[in-house]
Amino acid sequence: MIQSDYERLEALYDASQASLPVAEGLPALATAVHFGTNRHRPVHRWFHFKEGFSADLLHALGIDTRTMSDPGSIFLDPFCGSGTTLLAGDLEHRWCGQRFGLEINPFIGFVADTKIQWREYSADRFVQFAEEALASPLSIDADGAVIPALSTFHNPDIFEPSRLNELLNAVDRIKRLDSPEQAPLLLGIAAATERIGYFRRDGRALRILRGPKDLSDRISLTVADALRTSWSMIAEDLAFLEPLQNDKPVGSGQVIIDDGRAPTSPDLSAFRSEVELIAYSPPYLNHIDYTEVYKVELWLLGLVKSQSEMLALRKRTLRSHASIGISPSSPALPIDVEEAVTLASGMIINHGSAWHRSFQRLAFAYLEDMYLSLQQQFSFLRPGGKAICVVANSAHGAKDHRVPVAVDIWIAKLAEATGFHVEQFAVARQLARRNHINRFLRETAIVLRRPEIS
Predict the structure, then answer these.
(1) CB count in 10 Å sphere of residue 225
(2) pLDDT of 303-329, one tens digit each?
(3) pTM score > 0.70 for this model?
(4) What number of helices (H) and strands (E) belong to the chain?
């Protein structure tokens, strides 16, 4: 019997997965691999970063973190996003060691750093500054020269001009402050921006809202009221946590704007073979450009000021999307990974849309980047240290010919080739994409350990 390409691909996946310690049905893991529960936690909820995971992740996996009670212990997140584990190491876990996070996107890094520095903010000062910022009406007549050059800000279907001017005026008022509270006040503005504009984040793009209900909800919400709502939540959390601010502080946290594939920061150079624990979720191989998704906040806060800066940032990101342009490469991957990538890519190219023609180059570039990152993680971990990687698979191609892309298996195999021992290959939940269901379409937490030196 001649196997179809789909049968051949699944046979390759099954053969690669056969040697992995697959675990399914961990009761708390399904909710721990996405941001949902963080929306109800103090500080974590200051900015909804839907691509993140939960503060419950390590607990759901049964990771023993008692060694992090040692003041000399070190935690690293090479793709820290909004800083969930950096913050959880303080609020939920009470670690005494040092916590480092790397993030290439300066806005997302700002979100993480603002949250982990919560002990520096006074609830009373925060409320005072917030009230003063809105004591007089926000200006609707800002000079057009101060509007960022990003075309999104000049599209009235996305930002009504008077509302945009009020938003920019609020940013200007807060930036005049010389106080630690400036950071959470700016973060509150960033968190309110999606409700002030006539758009929403939808997958890999910003979608303009057209429906009467969506628009009426936005139009009826004034800019000042949107800011008050956002700032009130932050003020509530600071007041709630105020008793902890005078406690003996736990460890220290630091966010570094750096590349998680190959960190160059001197702040980390001394910690090779010293890191106790790594936990992260890298960008997925799903064609989403997070520079694009969070471009409004990048420009609004002045973290990007020109198209050339925007392009440079996009080109520095992990190669998970084709919008940066992918040059052909031939990374030295394990044979079983290379064979599966080649077969899956050919199927996707045959049945996909225009952008899928670059899928094979993109997949190899993505895995080359992840291979490099895994090698760096191995070098940072102490012998016996662990790394946890949360990743989701995807499906690409035409709707009747969607091809499962088992990135979780590929990353586990790259980890083994790096020298890691795979301790757990924990399937957190099955996914459905556009009515497509496949057993390899799932989200997985991979627990890796650097072997002890024999």
Answers:
(1) 14
(2) 999 999 999 999 999 998 877 677 766
(3) yes
(4) 16, 12
